[in-house]
């Protein structure tokens, strides 16, 4: 087993070496070298992940200068194995796409070099078993991404958005650094295994400052409201960068929470913050996304919404669900960005009028289907099925909207039967994933002092359901038209932040 764990040292080392060497090669050769390195990293990560499944978690440590302070620790478990395979696969696909996307560009070697270095940084981040190594990879990922955002430095928009991202990232770095120092003072070590075992065993000090610092750092890294506006503003960057950023790098905040989940489980107030911020961000991103005429900006706000939902899952204790969400969203978003050009000339779909009887029927059918599916799973797999809680309400609302939309588009008996059957299959698949996530990473629901947090989250998603149900009427009322203009501009949150940044860090061209 130690041999396979040691393989993990090569997973980030191979793209790191290729990225450094690519700067000294012609563009075509550099692109070929980085692509080979990315696929090699994927193969190594896959072999190590399979070994981890067969033999269980393990940690490889290398510390030539002492037992702890300068240790390099690589952790192999369900989280790091899943994330390393996912990130290396996405990196290989995006780097391969870059070979064609920038073929003939004079700066191709520089681009693929920074892409490979970014991939190495993210892989180090997800594999780190030591807080200092995790912090170094966290910072390196941001700095490498900064160079990719400035690939077209002559564009004023690219310079300003990169500068804005830089500011948010440095604030996140400070939060993570402060949290790491507090943990070291409390436990006398930076080793993640030792710290998390002590916290899980209940032998820990006051973790509230650590939990809130980590939550804030994750919110800054993963574009949570109100720190989200840097993400839609980075559309000046080449498409491969957008794909890797939205499919891989943006998940760093959620990964940090999942990796350090015992800390948040021990601090229910920090989990409550994650749940509320995640629900607000998910609803905000979904509303603003619907008003965006640009495909890439719509995808950016979609990412904001998805990251919000992932934070909500973490805040409610569904860390396994959050990990599966990361995998599914990453694969979908990478495909969406790399095929965004195919949407040019496509005819947009018109809004389907949702009638009140259809909405009522959808709500009833969605609730019944979720209840039936839950009862069925409790009978079949009672030991592996945890309570749905708020997730059951969200699933029921999603099914209700789908059934109402289908029935409104074609109010026929066979349409209702098809929609109901499809919704039931979706409900069963969702419950299967919920069960699988609970087995992969046990559900550790925070001990809420009151039902206020679940009630608030449920109210936010119920309000979002009502908004989507009434959206087709928006152009018929002055209020709806005004709301559209506000949503188109992201309710001006980014505008105010841009003006503030312009005053604190002036540039020759400031975009309001």
Largest sheet: 2 strands, antiparallel
Total of helices: 20
Question: Could you estimate the helical fraction of the residues in percent?
Answer: over 70%
Mean pLDDT across all residues, rounded? 83
As a whole number of angstroms, the C-alpha radius of gyration is 23 Å
Overall outline: globular
What structural class do helix, strand and pairing data support? mainly alpha
The count of strands amounts to: 2
Beta content comes to under 5%
What letter string, H or E per element, gives the SSE order?
HHEEHHHHHHHHHHHHHHHHHH
Short description:
This protein is an all-alpha fold and about 500 residues long. About 70% of the residues lie in helices and about 0% in strands. Among the domains are: about 1-130; about 355-455, no CATH class.
Describe the protein's architecture and organization.
- There is one protein chain.
- Among the domains are: 1-129; 356-454, no CATH class.
- Helix content is 72%, strand content 2%.
- It contains 20 helices and two strands.
- It has helices at 2-22, 27-55, 78-101, 108-127, 131-149, 156-187, 192-200, 208-221, 239-247, 252-259, 261-266, 268-289, 295-315, 319-338, 356-380, 390-409, 413-440, 452-470, 478-488, 493-504; strands at 58-62, 72-76.
- The chain has a two-stranded antiparallel sheet with strand order 1-2.
- The longest helix is centred in the middle third of the chain and has 32 residues, at 156-187.
């Amino acid at each position: 087993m130690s041999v396979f764990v040691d393989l993990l040292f090569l997973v980030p080392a191979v793209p790191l070496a290729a990225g450094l060497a690519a700067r000294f090669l012609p563009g075509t050769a550099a692109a070929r070298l980085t692509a080979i390195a990315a696929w090699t990293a994927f193969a190594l990560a896959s072999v190590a992940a399979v070994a981890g499944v067969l033999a269980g978690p393990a940690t490889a440590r290398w510390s030539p200068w002492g037992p702890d302070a300068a240790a390099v620790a690589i952790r192999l478990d369900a989280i790091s194995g899943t994330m390393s395979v996912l990130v290396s696969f996405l990196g290989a696909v995006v780097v391969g796409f870059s070979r064609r996307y920038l073929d003939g560009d004079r700066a191709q070697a520089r681009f693929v070099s920074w892409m490979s270095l970014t991939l190495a940084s993210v892989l180090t981040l997800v594999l780190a078993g030591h807080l200092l190594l995790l912090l170094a990879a966290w910072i390196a990922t941001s700095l490498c991404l900064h160079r990719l955002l400035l690939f077209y430095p002559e564009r004023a928009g690219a310079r300003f958005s990169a500068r804005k991202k830089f500011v948010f990232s440095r604030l996140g770095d400070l939060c993570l650094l402060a949290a790491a120092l507090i943990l070291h003072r409390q436990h006398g070590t930076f080793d993640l295994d030792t710290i998390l075992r002590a916290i899980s065993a209940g032998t820990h000090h006051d973790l509230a400052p650590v939990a809130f610092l980590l939550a804030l750092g994750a919110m800054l890294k993963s574009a949570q409201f109100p720190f989200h506006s840097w993400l839609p503003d980075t559309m000046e960057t080449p498409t491969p960068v957008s794909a890797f950023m939205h499919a891989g790098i943006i998940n760093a905040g959620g990964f940090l929470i999942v990796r350090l989940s015992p800390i948040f489980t021990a601090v229910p107030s920090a989990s409550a913050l994650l749940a509320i911020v995640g629900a607000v961000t998910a609803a905000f991103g979904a509303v603003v996304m619907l008003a965006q005429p640009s495909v890439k900006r719509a995808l950016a706000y979609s990412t904001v919404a998805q990251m919000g939902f992932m934070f909500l899952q973490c805040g409610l204790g569904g860390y396994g669900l959050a990990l599966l969400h990361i995998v599914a969203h990453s694969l979908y978003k990478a495909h969406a960005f790399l095929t965004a050009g195919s949407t040019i000339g496509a005819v947009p779909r018109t809004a389907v009028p949702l009638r009140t009887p259809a909405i009522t029927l959808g709500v009833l059918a969605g609730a019944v289907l979720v209840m039936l599916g839950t009862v069925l799973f409790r009978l079949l797999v009672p030991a592996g099925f945890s309570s749905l809680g708020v997730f059951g309400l969200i699933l029921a609302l999603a099914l209700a909207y789908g059934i109402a939309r289908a029935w409104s588009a074609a109010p026929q008996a066979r349409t209702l039967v098809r929609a109901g059957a499809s919704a039931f299959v979706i409900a069963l698949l969702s419950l299967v994933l919920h069960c699988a996530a609970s087995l992969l990473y046990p559900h550790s629901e925070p001990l809420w002092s009151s039902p206020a947090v679940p009630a608030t989250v449920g109210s936010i998603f119920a309000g979002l359901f009502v908004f989507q149900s009434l959206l087709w009427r928006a152009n018929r009322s002055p209020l709806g038209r005004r709301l559209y203009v506000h949503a188109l501009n992201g309710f001006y949150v980014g505008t105010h932040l841009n003006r503030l940044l312009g005053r604190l860090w002036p540039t020759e061209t400031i975009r309001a």
